[in-house]
Design brief:
This protein has about 300 residues and is α+β, with helices and mostly antiparallel strands. The chain is built from 8 helices and 12 strands. The chain has a single domain, classed as archaeoglobus fulgidus dsm 4304 superfamily (archaeoglobus fulgidus dsm 4304 fold, 2-Layer Sandwich), CATH 3.30.2170.
Length: about 300
């Protein structure tokens, strides 16, 4: 049977609750559920206190950490929002995403993996590699409480503060960020890769394992084969075959990187696995039981 790529997103506003609906047909997306620490029944996370971060709000545990995070973010916004305001903010910020190459040289690439070991705890694993040898320069794994509920299409409001906390631990800013998640391939063209890229003002690529929005033909079977991912008449990314005979990954613009460059860099970071090396190593780091800062 010919492989087919198709998945339509359902906004929480359309389904009226926080159930794990990831498809208009009503199917539960167990992978997304597990990644976000949400049990099969709908779940609302416990609220936590927040501290100010340069005029914005985020669930950081100490004022010192808040100050560090404030220094890595190029722009700021409030995080303590209801879903309707969060969607409106996504639409507003999406206009600031730069969809062309705006960088000089890429010598270091950071891979970021985000997940939830518990529904109320977020974990960010950030691994920085130096090209062309893919030498690990830094590795940071942090866990933080999260206060935003699980809402389809608004995952970056749960994930991004934890990712920023990991970034605040780095000794040196990488030249580019590759996120295990969506960029433009999002209902409001503002997935986690766009969100972090814009906040950090950093060239960013989204490289996801599954489709959130869009339809397209399957790419050819060989490494480097690709097929456009189209949503409402707009190409929002590509399905990219990174290894012959394995499932594709879904690459989209995050910020300050064109789609062609995002594809090129994803393939350049391939080391014989389905996932590009930055996010593959970040995924490995995230699976560790306790946070660490090695090397």
């Amino acid at each position: 049977m010919e492989e087919c790529l198709e998945l339509d997103a359902v906004d929480a506003a359309d389904i009226g609750d926080l159930a794990l609906v990831a498809e208009s047909g009503g199917l539960f997306d167990q992978e997304v559920a597990q990644r976000n620490g949400v049990p099969p029944a709908q779940h609302r996370t416990q609220s936590y206190g927040v501290v100010a971060v340069g005029g914005s709000h985020a669930p950081y545990t100490t004022p010192n950490e808040a100050a560090r995070v404030g220094t890595v973010a190029a722009i700021e916004h409030e995080w303590d929002l209801d879903p309707a305001r969060a969607r409106a903010l996504q639409r507003e910020l999406a206009g600031g995403v730069i969809r062309e190459d705006r960088f000089e040289s890429i010598e270091t690439i950071a891979g970021l993996d985000l997940g939830f070991p518990r529904p109320d705890i977020g974990r960010a694993a950030l691994v920085v590699l130096r090209l062309p040898a893919f030498e690990v320069v830094e590795r940071r794994v942090v866990e933080r409480p999260v206060s935003f509920p699980y809402v389809p299409g608004l995952l970056s409001f749960r994930e991004a503060p934890v990712g920023l906390a990991a970034f605040a631990e780095l000794e040196r800013r990488p030249d580019l960020l590759m996120v295990d998640g969506q960029g433009l391939a999002h209902p409001r063209r503002f997935g986690i890769a766009c969100h972090l890229g814009l906040l950090l003002d950093l060239p960013t690529i989204g490289c996801a394992k599954s489709i959130l929005v869009g339809r397209g033909e399957a790419p050819g079977p060989e490494r480097g084969d690709r097929a456009p991912l189209v949503d409402r008449g707009e190409t929002v990314g590509v399905a990219l075959r990174t290894r012959a005979g394995v499932k594709p990954v879904y690459v989209s613009i995050g910020h300050r990187v064109s789609l062609e460059t995002a594809i090129e860099l994803t393939l350049r970071c391939g080391r014989g696995y389905r996932l590009p090396e930055p996010t593959r190593l970040a995924d490995q780091a995230a699976s560790r039981r306790r946070p660490d800062t090695a090397p």
